Amino acid sequence: MGATASRRLELVGITKAYPGCIANDGVEMTVKPGEIHALVGENGAGKSTLMKIIYGVVKPDAGQLIWNDRETLIEGPAHARRLGMGMVFQHFSLFQTLTVTENIALYLPRQEYGSLRRLRDRILSVGEAYGLDINPDRHVHTLSVGEQQRVEIVRCLLQEIQLLILDEPTAVLTPGEVTHLVKVLKQLAREGCSILFISHKLEEVRTLCDRATILRGGRVTGNCIPAETTSEQLSRMMLGDDLHIEKSMGVGAPGDDRLSLEGVSVSPGGAFAIALHNIDLTLRAGEITGIAGVAGNGQDELVDLINGELPPDAGKLLLDSRDMTAEGVLARRRAGLATVHADRLGRGSIGAMSLTENRLLTAYVTDSDAHGFLHWRPLTERTRELIQHYQVKASGPDDTAASLSGGNLQKFIIGREIAQAPKVLVCFYPTWGVDVGSANRIHVELARLRDEGTAILILTEDLDELYLLCDRVGAICGGQLSPLKPGNEVSMETLGQWMAGTFGASQTQGGQHAH
Amino acid sequence: MSIDIIENILFATIRTGTPLLLVALGAMISERSGVLNLGQEGMILVGAVCAFIGAYTTDSLLIGVASGLASGALFSLIFAVIAISLVSSQIATGLALTIFGTGLSAFLGVDYVGLSIDGLDEWPIPLLHDIPVIGKAFFAQDMLVYGSFALFAAIYYVMSRTRVGLIIRAVGENPGVAHSMGYRVLLVRYATVMFGGAMAGLAGAYLSLAYTPMWTEGMSAGRGWIALALVVFASWRTGRVLVGAWLFAFASILHLVLQGFGYDISPNLLGMLPYLATIIALVMMMQRAGTAQLAPRSLGQPYYPQK
Questions:
Q1: Which residues of chain B lie closer than 8 angstroms to A98, CB-CB?
Q2: Average pLDDT along chain A
């Protein structure tokens, strides 16, 4: 793979402004051939805009892009691919109902397409060469998230590739899968392919990457060799000096049972749904319970089940020792349950409605002083307080939910539910897409709610968050729940095994079993 | 029933099924790319009247067929501009197109009502048309029927075996991703909509030049709507569209035959037969296929690439 150039990619003074914000401001960066280069920064630091500029999706307002020592104007993603760039998106760009081979065929330029049968063989041989095991005939919707990522990587490797861009690739993987990915990336780098690795997980960056560029507020705030830099120094460059991050959330003092699932099973509701098998789960007042798991292993179903959207086939659900198995969403909310769905715009809010109206969508249960009439002024005022408290970036309560960025909407929705002081709070991805500062605020608020006696359930892929917040941890895999144990008794390795569906390790420790 | 009657029923079935097949194939292609065009009925009528006017004034059936094709494609361009470029609701635009097409065809055809032309001749294929039972149905038809066979085969091949078909499916599945891969979503959708328009125009030409060689107002008689329903029940698969179209045609012929034999069943009940039989058959096929093949994910949703 052509490694003659001294610089694979160089950015000079890249600037891109959107109405109301400067996403990139004079960004300079150099990536050498065969180098694993990290691009580090918080959400909203301008990483994704920069990536899109490199890959030709977005055109910069000013600045130059130098590719293999030559100034180049990238006309679009197809042009970028012809030049030898490949990109693995965070939210995969795959067509769910097509097969792996068909997906890859669409990605390749016409002249390299050949016949599907020949392409199938090439996929298999590339997969073998890099240890990326995929079945070319499967439909993408039947693949796990890790497998889908492999499809994205393989399709980049089918071309002469000189620069592979990965957008937070480890966010969706189990610890075991991460180890495997790291191996693949190192092999690629040895062969001369440069890798641009976007992340905000500092540990990962320190072990994998040769060099790092740090972005904050659209500007480069530092360049370093991660292996020789401490995590503290890195996070200082990422966050600035003024930010105070709370490192400990304290521990809970478990009280009465608030929510109990007793042997609950659910059969799959659709083609892409997961069945839940014999789930036993008890949430206690003043305690945070955390469930890890790779996306699509039954988390959606579990949340829907607790929220009352999915009726169970067997088993019982008790809320405050009342049998509410047959009750719907409204009855459960009235009884003190609050839920934050993963799908913020589809389930947690209505895009075309204002923030005030969206707040009222669930707050009507507790905010019922109006007796069915709406007094807009106090409602607007309360929404404004919510926006300020959680530092939601919005111009005011009249903004529509759809106009907020994902992380900001998440802050708003979780703030809305916390503000109702529920007896039981179920949080799916509490800090998904939220910047470090705001994530910390959400964590502090969740800990406060716990101290006030709320039973909290968190479902997350972020293991750091899990260990930071949760008094008891467990994992879900294929619709089965692992044992739940105090966080300090469960090692990262054990949790990784649980996430992969091996609950057996717990038996030797004498724990209870999931089934 | 003698062999003769069966031969005639099959022959009539294929003839009746041809316009349905043409329209449904065109609608299927544009729906595969994510565009739901409810204007089929209007496009058939415009195609029918233009084909008739073309053939009548030039005395050439070939020009008639060509005018049907071209007018259908051009007429669908109105839909494409409004629903694709101007990102308006596909449902509303399609309905408007049908209403407009019905009116426009009546207006254009007002001087041609009641005139007659020599319709498309049958063109029996030597030897093959002598095959017992099916020979007459498949090998003693006119050129447009043979054309519908060829179009079916071509569409089947393109959709399942070629890159073009793959791109159309990808655009209908997720236009955002297709765009980010460098495919021209709007161009693909324009092309499929206009292909659908041409197919509906061709079906119109078949009606006014071959099936009943004359022009009458509203002569499409709901075929556009039936075709749209067929596409759904056929779960957007080429082969099932063919089965559905011919099945529907067979049932409608059968009800005429049964009436002719003097069975004492209410003609209204018999009239329901084609609809009922087709729906039941296709729903059964759908059940067997499972849930794997659903509607194109972006069907009916406008898409406009972000700059």
A1: 166, 169-170, 173
A2: 85
